[in-house]
Amino acid sequence: QVQVVESGGGLVQAGGSLRLSCTASRSVFDAYAVAWFRQAPGQERDGVACVSWSGDTAWYADSVKGRFTISRDSANNTVYLQMNSLKPEDTAMYYCAPASVVAGLIVPLREFTSWGQGTQVTVSS
Predict the structure, then answer these.
(1) What pLDDT score was predicted for residue 111?
(2) Residue 57: what are its φ and ψ, rounded to 5°?
(3) Is 39 left (phi over 0), alpha (psi -120 to 50) or beta?
(4) Confidence of residue 26 (pLDDT cuts 50, 70, 90)
(5) Which of 35, 24, 30 is nearest to 74 (CA)?
(6) DSSP for 76-114?
């Protein structure tokens, strides 16, 4: 069974930066695009950034464009999310998963069920 581990979250003031990391226990990420998702209390989990399997194409939700950058290190099965100019509305639990982009929306692969524990990002005003 695939194990996904997210890390790098924390408490930061508005305008600050964080870098999230996501690793998989085996090379399940190799064949797929991988995305970061976030979920705030009482809200649905939404995709914020996705990187292609080759790493040369990225997609972003409008809310994070120009502030977040996704990248991947396939040799180490790791995907990163650099978050700059953080806002209080970025506060959420962040997760990663194999994903696809459908009609402009970042969605997890239907067959993926091994969600990690996530990493909490809290942005104070």
Answers:
(1) 86
(2) -135, 140
(3) beta
(4) low
(5) 30
(6) GTEEEEEE-S--GGG-EEEEEEEEEEETTEEEE-TT---
